[in-house]
């Protein structure tokens, strides 16, 4: 169980590092695609960076979910705990956010971004808030 937990934590850290960085790339990429900055080479560079980071992010997500489910398979009684139920709800939100990142990535790749730099600055805060909630639930177990 401790090995599963250790690998789960490592993969979650990797996943969230990417979840926090990819939307930051979107902020700068939006400046180019919205015409704030004229940089054709930069546009192409951001597309490559975003695509590669999303791949790493997806591997980390799959590993996080695999190790998390493995821990639940070892101790299914955890599912009866309210704090874990709430954590899993937040994890579902993280997975949905990951999917939203993919949709936005596709828009940037097709040069069809319609959102502002400001949108991406706000969008970038979502995973941090989810992470805070998840960590509090896991460490403090308030319920």
Describe the structure.
By secondary structure, the chain is an all-alpha fold. The protein has five helices and no strands. It has helices at residues 2-33, 40-74, 82-109, 117-123, 126-140. The two termini are 23 Å apart. α1 packs antiparallel against α2 (40-74) and α1 (2-33) runs antiparallel to α4.
Topology:
Layout: H1 2-33, H2 40-74, H3 82-109, H4 117-123, H5 126-140
Helix pairs in contact: 1-2, 1-3, 1-4, 2-3, 3-5
Comma- or semicolon-separated keywords:
mainly alpha, 143 residues, single chain
Strand content: under 5%
Mean pLDDT: 96
Quaternary structure? single chain
- Radius of gyration over all CA atoms, rounded: 17 Å
How many strands in all? Answer: 0
Q: What can be said about this structure in brief?
A:
By secondary structure, the protein is mostly helical. It has 5 helices and no strands. It starts with a helix and ends with a helix.
């Amino acid at each position: 169980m401790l090995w599963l937990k250790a690998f789960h934590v490592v993969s979650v850290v990797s996943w969230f590092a990417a979840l926090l960085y990819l939307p930051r790339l979107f902020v700068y990429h939006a400046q180019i695609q919205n015409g704030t900055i004229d940089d054709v080479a930069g546009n192409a560079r951001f597309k490559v960076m975003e695509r590669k980071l999303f791949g790493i992010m997806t591997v980390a997500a799959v590993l996080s979910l695999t190790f998390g489910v493995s821990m639940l398979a070892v101790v299914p009684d955890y599912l009866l705990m309210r704090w874990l139920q709430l954590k899993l709800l937040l994890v579902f939100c993280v997975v949905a956010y990951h999917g939203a990142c993919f949709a936005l990535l596709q828009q940037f790749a097709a040069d069809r971004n319609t959102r502002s730099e400001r949108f991406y600055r706000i969008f970038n805060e979502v995973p941090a808030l989810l992470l805070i909630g998840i960590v509090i639930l896991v460490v403090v177990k308030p319920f």
